[in-house]
Amino acid sequence: MVSPQQLCNLMFVLNPISGDIDKSELESTIGRYCRERGRHVAFFHTTGEQDLEILRRKLAQEAYHAVFAAGGDGTVSLVAEALAGGQVPLGIIPLGSGNGLSKDLNIPQDVEQALRLTWDYQVLTMDTIQVGGNFSAHLADLGFNALIVERFDKGEARGPGAYVRIATQEYISYEPEHYHIKTDSEEWEGPAFMLTIANANTFGSNVVINPEGKLNDGQFEICLIDPFPNAAAPGILYNLYTSGFNQSSYTRRLCCSRATITIPSQKQVLVQIDGEPMHLPTPIEVEIMPRSLHVLVPPIQQPTTA
Ligand SMILES: Nc1ncnc2c1ncn2[C@@H]1O[C@H](COP(=O)(O)OP(=O)(O)OP(=O)(O)O)[C@@H](O)[C@H]1O
Fold first, then answer.
1. Which helix or strand (DSSP H or E) is residue 171 part of?
2. Domain boundary residue among 59, 87, 120?
3. Does a structural domain hold residue 191?
4. Range of the domain at 58
5. What is the Cα–Cα distance from 210 to 208, expressed in whole angstroms?
6. By CB count within 10 A, which of 12, 108, 202, 238 is most buried?
7. Is residue 128 part of a domain?
8. ipTM rounded to 2 decimals
9. Closest CA to 52 of 115, 135, 130
10. Residue having the nearest C-alpha atom to atom 10 of ligand 1
């Protein structure tokens, strides 16, 4: 593993559309910041088309000491997938709508503050997950939230207001699906409002779906919300926003390193993985990839001595 003073050759992967944020000054801000500190920087601008393949080719051509994702969770997941299994660490400059993984890693949400990670950092080696053969670093889910993410993705409107509007419309007619889950330690079958495959803890919306999950414990959690009556919705929402997932009588959690998820009535199912909706054939095989990704995180604050 490289030490702080050796992080000299950096690549920044910039997503021009993430978070609906103006990034016209971003490249010059990052370039100036890094050059003032003696760093060499290269930039890769995503297009939304074959970014993973092109990025992998670029990374194979030059030895970078770290690769930073400047975008939202989708951009972070793209760069993480390109780096997983190797020694080069991922850095994150949170510039998306939600920035869920960066929040779980205590990465500052301000660009200048996050850029400190180019010289002041520690390396966390975290697990990643394979969900039906697809890479996930953060959270994936089936059921209600996946439906909302897909509707949101197809729509024009952006921001938390649009998400809440779509969720309210869909909630009225939503029919929970029936799932069969077989993990390496238990089996569960029943209907669920939503089912989250969680490596991390918190959605970009600040909903804490998996408060006790650890990013480097060699396990993932399947967090289930049972179908619930309308009257229970405010209490469930309150618990989700206050790290109280386990306190609700409508939630359950399966902890495992491998699972098979079957939806008896469907051959294909909608899944959102790190914010990207996709349709996958069932059953879905889920497997942890222990300690497969190095990430730059802020150094642990040492207590000040008098
Ligand atoms: N130049 C581009 N034009 C259009 N779409 C792009 C471009 N570059 C990347 N994308 C798309 O951007 C999406 C990823 O966006 P990302 O998740 O980083 O931001 P976000 O959705 O605003 O934030 P968050 O996921 O944190 O809520 C992917 O679907 C990717 O295909």
1. helix 160-173
2. 120
3. yes
4. 4-120
5. 6
6. 12
7. no
8. 0.96
9. 135
10. 48
Q: Which of 24, 45, 75, 154 should be mutated for ligand 1, with most atoms under 8 A from CB?
A: 75
Of 120, 147, 171, the position where a domain reaches its end is 120
State whether 88 and 235 are in the same domain. no
pLDDT in tens, 282-306: 999 999 999 999 999 999 865 555 4
**79 contact partners, CB below 8 Å, separation of at least 6:** 13, 55, 67, 68, 69, 90
Same domain, 162 and 185: yes
Cα separation, 169 vs 49, in Å, equals 31
**Cβ neighbours of residue 22 closer than 8 Å, sequence gap 6 or more:** none
Instruction: Please state whether beta strands 40-45 and 9-14 pair in parallel, antiparallel, or not at all (unpaired).
Output: parallel
Q: How far is the CA of 306 from the centre of ligand 1 (A)?
A: 47
CA distances from 12 to 8, 68, 101, 225 (A): 13, 5, 17, 38
What separation in Å is there between the alpha carbon of 18 and the centre of ligand 1? 5
Residues 199 and 225 in one domain: yes
CA of 213 to the centre of ligand 1 (A): 26
How many separate domains does the chain show? 2
**Co-location of 14 and 77 in the same domain:** yes
Same domain, 102 and 234: no
pLDDT in tens, 216-270: 999 999 999 999 999 999 999 888 988 888 888 999 999 999 999 999 989 999 9
C-beta atoms surrounding 246 within 10 Å: 13
Q: Which amino acid is at 181?
A: I
Asked whether residue 107 falls in the same domain as residue 11, the answer is yes
